[in-house]
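Lecture notes, continued. The same structure-token format from the folding unit now serves as the input rather than the output. Read the line below as a description of shape only.
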């Protein structure tokens, strides 16, 4: 697969892969409905489900003259119930991707990760942000953006595995994974750098995936070839990272919001580790970003949901 460098390319690739059925939970605003219909027109999704306030959804379709013939509207005005209904459809294999519409992420994920939902696997649930950034020549992945708040060493390994799989689906072959810290060297005073050294030292494991994994690296050393060169950092990852692995929820949240608000980036957020991809964009996202989110989910559908990789420390 060729390298996908922007959201437009991601949508084209999703269309070529073939349509998959999706379900949108709380599809109660125009941006969500229009994005879903556009994805259907592009051949990204097949006949799918819009769960939410049926009157609102039908009203949006009428106002914007939208054709809902490719969708089943499931009336469920309450957000929590809408999320549960969406997960039920996924558990019954009637949908291969679940998309968060106009509802709180916490409610969406609570429904998805409930034991009653039937979507949990043995894998660590983690978030991968796929960023399109102005003047940046390729898509950039970040993980974990807020599902695993303070990952253990074992959890971080599984988070890296999931991010590698997404990177490969986007044509990043081999994926270049940077483990971020505040410094570019291992320091006994900074526990995270020692943990990173342990992960990087698992060379045989990363060789099996075909990915390059390196760190600790600062953000600028990870993505800027000139900065990496100035600091004498070599190897295939420094200055050329595709995936940025953050130490914890605080650093991940600050970085992703910084990309969005200061750099003008747009994010397609995917939660992995359940039986289907869970798409968690922002409620303030425009239609174009919501469409990209659906495309990301469709592109990686069927890739996840199995048992976790077997490994030991």
């Amino acid at each position: 697969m060729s390298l996908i460098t922007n959201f437009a390319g991601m949508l084209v690739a999703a269309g070529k892969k073939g349509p998959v059925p999706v379900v949108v939970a709380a599809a109660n605003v125009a941006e969500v409905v229009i994005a879903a219909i556009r994805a259907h027109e592009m051949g990204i999704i097949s006949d799918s489900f819009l769960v939410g306030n049926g009157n609102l959804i039908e009203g949006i379709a009428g106002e914007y003259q939208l054709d809902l013939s490719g969708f089943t509207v499931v009336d469920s005005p309450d957000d929590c119930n809408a999320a549960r209904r969406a997960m039920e459809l996924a558990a019954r294999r009637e949908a291969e991707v679940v998309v968060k519409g106009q509802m709180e992420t916490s409610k969406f994920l609570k429904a998805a990760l409930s034991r009653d939902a039937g979507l949990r696997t043995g894998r660590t649930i983690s978030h991968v942000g796929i960023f399109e950034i102005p003047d940046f020549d390729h898509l950039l992945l970040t993980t974990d953006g807020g599902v695993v708040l303070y990952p253990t060493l074992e959890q971080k390994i599984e988070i890296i595995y999931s991010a590698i799989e997404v990177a490969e689906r986007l044509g990043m072959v081999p994926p270049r994974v940077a483990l971020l810290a505040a410094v570019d060297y291992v320091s006994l005073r900074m526990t995270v750098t020692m943990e990173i050294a342990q992960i990087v030292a698992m060379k045989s494991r990363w060789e099996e995936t075909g990915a390059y994994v390196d760190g600790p690296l600062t953000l600028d050393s990870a993505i800027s070839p000139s900065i990496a060169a100035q600091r004498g950092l070599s190897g295939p990852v420094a200055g050329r990272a595709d995936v940025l692995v953050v130490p914890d929820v605080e650093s991940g949240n600050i970085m992703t919001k910084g990309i969005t608000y200061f750099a003008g980036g747009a994010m397609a957020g995917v939660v992995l580790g359940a039986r289907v991809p869970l798409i968690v964009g922002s409620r303030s996202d425009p239609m174009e970003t919501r469409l990209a989110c659906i495309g990301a989910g469709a592109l990686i559908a069927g890739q996840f949901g199995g048992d976790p990789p077997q490994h030991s420390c």
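Point for the exam: The mean pLDDT is 93.
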